[in-house]
Design brief:
The protein is an all-alpha fold. The chain is 77% helix and 0% strand. The chain has one domain. α1 runs antiparallel to α2.
Length: 44
Amino acid sequence: MKFFLHDDADTELDAAVAFYEACRPGLGLDFAAEVYRSIELACD
């Protein structure tokens, strides 16, 4: 399923990914993957 994030939500997600990535390399990418997986599950 295709979905789009509101611009503000996309900006906030980018900031969260950057924060977690700064805490531990790879953590931000893991976080983003889980966010997108959760959205896909909610859309199904």
